[in-house]
Q: What sequence folds into this?
């Protein structure tokens, strides 16, 4: 997920853009958390920060693996924002969703310039493994839950534009074709 328009810059890892087949593949399970995976996670964190992203999934940096990172600021009761905490999710599984839905305008580092309101469950519970190899189960809500679901979709080959109404998606088609032409694989 992304906040602000910061796309098109050079990042630590090159981004895969809309139209790249890797974004439609299901990421493979990470079998061993070795130095390569730790390095990839750190490079993904750098790339996410350089791009002003709230999250980044491995397929977005050309690695078809089931892992993603998020860093979502939290809003205080006085409405000021606290910097987010970086979280790494390896082989994540969303184990429960709340019934109540919440809409938020999402963007994606792989689909520059498109921002649309996406309705998703307000809360989710996720089981995943961290970089130390420890399994954790945690509940997320609001913006952080949106980021978790957005990134988890990426490792299943799903993009946020797939979550829009058929009408909205159709309206976006010409712009999506342009993005594919401009940023996609040649
Ligand atoms: Zn995305």
A:
């Amino acid at each position: 997920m992304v906040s602000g328009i910061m796309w098109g810059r050079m990042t630590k890892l090159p981004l895969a853009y809309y139209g790249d087949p890797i974004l439609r593949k299901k990421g493979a399970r990470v079998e061993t958390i070795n130095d390569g995976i730790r390095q990839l996670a750190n490079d993904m964190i750098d790339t996410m920060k350089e791009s002003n992203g709230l999250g980044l999934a491995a397929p977005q940096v050309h690695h078809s693996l089931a892992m993603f990172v998020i860093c979502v600021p939290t809003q205080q009761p006085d409405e000021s924002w606290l910097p987010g905490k970086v979280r790494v999710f390896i082989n994540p599984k969303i184990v429960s969703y709340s019934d109540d839905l919440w809409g938020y305008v999402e963007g994606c580092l792989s689909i520059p310039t498109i921002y649309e309101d996406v309705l998703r469950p307000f809360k989710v519970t996720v089981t995943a493994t961290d970089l130390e190899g420890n399994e954790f189960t945690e509940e997320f809500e609001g913006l952080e839950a949106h980021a978790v679901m957005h990134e988890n979709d990426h490792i299943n080959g799903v993009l946020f534009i797939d979550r829009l109404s058929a009408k909205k998606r159709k309206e976006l088609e010409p712009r999506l074709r342009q993005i594919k032409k401009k940023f996609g694989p040649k």
